[in-house]
Write the structure tokens for this entry.
Amino acid sequence: MLPERCLPLDEDRCPVDDRMLGEIYRASAHGLSTLIATLSPTARAMLALYCYRRAHLASLGLAIATACEREDLVRWAGNAGAVLFERARQPRQAPATGRSLDGRRKITLATKAVARRIVFEDIADEETDDADRVSEAKRRQADERLTQDQKAELCPV
């Protein structure tokens, strides 16, 4: 079944103003149903889809979808609306450990040092020492050549 009016997935316009969205976001479970009841069925369906498409608002989208009619969700989102309608009516699972009742993870603070400092002792590496000696000898030779060139420029023979 094709929807009569389908919103594109990249649609970023919220069907309600920012003030109303903020009130809905901060509302308790009882207050949410009261706020949602003030919206038209079309606005309700569009808001449920808008919220469900965003990860941080998905649980809010499901809560709004419980107040929507299946036909309204299908009209605006087709099969996705039908799936949203079914998911909104499935029994809620118990929150996973480490999550609060609204589905957000609990914030924890570190109690131990994040990383340990490891101090390495100097280990005599023969290959490194040999390479250092060779590079030191080459640097001395280059310095001697430079000194000789400078003396030659100052005192022509």
